[in-house]
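Subject: for your reference before the review

Hello V.,

The reviewers asked for a structural picture of the protein, and I figured it would be easier to keep everything in one thread rather than splitting it across files. Below is the amino acid sequence we used in the manuscript, unchanged from the supplementary table.
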Amino acid sequence: MPVGPSEEQTQAAMAKRNYPVCSALIARAMGGANQVTIDSREALERCCAAHPSLLVELPFLSDLGRVEEAYDKLGSTPIHAHQTPSAIMVNPELQLLDVDYAGLPLMFTNIAHRPQPQQGFVLVYRPPASDRIEIHEAHPHDLLALKIIAEDLNYRQLAAEHGVPLGHIDDIVYQAVAKGILIRPPSRIRRPDDFSTNAINDEQFISSPVFTLQWHITQQCDLSCRHCYDRSHRQAVSLDQGIAILDDFYDFCRSQFVHGQVSFTSGNPLLHANFMELYRAAVERGFLTAILGNPTSREKLETLLSIRKPAFYQVSLEGLQEHNDYIRGQGHFERVMRFLPLLKKFGILSMVMQTLTRENSGQVLQLAELLRDKADHFNFNRLAMVGEGASLASAGIDTYVDFLRNYLTAAKHNPIMGLKDNLFNLIQLQDGSDHFYSGCTGYGCGAAFNFVSLLPDGRVDACRKFDSPLGNIFENSLLTIYTSEPARQYRKGPRGCKDCTIRPLCRGCMAVMYGMGKDVLGAPDPYCFKDRIHHR
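And here is what came back from the structure prediction:
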């Protein structure tokens, strides 16, 4: 429990370097006639020796004194910033006390509480970046986490010995980190220092605690969309290959001190013969999971839920019924509209994505309104004119800023409407706002930064929507691929964005640029209107 300003009298006494709880208990036991002040372990021992009946009435007094002594010692130590560790470490200010009574920490907030005989441990520590001192009984998981880190135990071996999923071991360690018992290095998925600007320098936009593997496990699909960006033949990943990939991704996430998310996608990921086995394997490694696919059956959703509920399930609509079915096939609109209530019934967060084209741009707001009570989130992506999408027309450049403004106005009254396009931030900048949106992946363009795309044949791309190969995971580890020069170049984004005020949360869309035949690392996104003046 945190011991803070709410216990004013106790805090004041502790500031004087004495043992207020012990002192108050002894005074009560002695009738309260005289004020008792215990200011050291020795003073407590002398008092107990002079009054033997105290240990009969308060047999836990010695243990309580040790807890107060640990608190006093930590409270008298100046607060100092810890050096950033290179690995997970035990909080250097942690004191682990073995005790013979349970319930001692409760005495600090309820002096009438009586601890009961039971061997255990009490933790006394100051969490990182905090001026509060925590006093807790150690949970078995706390002790295991301390043992794992102090003895540098092998996570995989430990999981195998205890017959638990690997992710269970990670959860134990992460819980101890969250409590401040352990200290973990900051995420290594971090923008370089020159990315920060005067307008955008918040840590939440510079460093990512989560890394997403957008995993295309098969090319098989039950649709034939007119804007599909990849109809190439690639062999579906095998179960053995998939397990090896997940193990490599696990090692990558541990090395970068991030949580991993696996977003299963493809043509339709649920058509993969071993989808459920791969999904379970991802869950067992402690990854967040999500699905980007097509409507599926109630039975498959129930199987998913028996493993673990996905963080979200994303489906697509390309406008109102007639246009959507022209793009995605007859009957698709109705299948989605029947599927969304099923997701809601099962408590699965639903997302609907629209690919924005010139032809359907006028249907976006109508579709968002139609989905208001049916989906949890709605977003759009601009068309990348690659693959089959090259035959469609992208949204008009000259009218795009007006489209964004109209969308923003509607979004103020429709809570499901997301602001995924990075260029929304240009409107904020030009309107003089100091509030910016997180953009496409939470960090503007996240290509090769907080996500990569993995194809069935092992090819890793910076972004799946355009040709951006970084390497092959069957030939090199993800860590090697992520730290490669091509990956670094995609993370930098277009050179034309280098001096932009909102660079950390924008850099346009390289997939759109690629589809328009532009150098994705050269001039800014053709839709960028930074140098054009637009007023409300």
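For the response letter, the relevant points are probably these. Residues 4-17 have pLDDT under 50 and may be disordered. The two ends are 52 Å apart (CA to CA).

Happy to draft the paragraph if you're swamped.

O.
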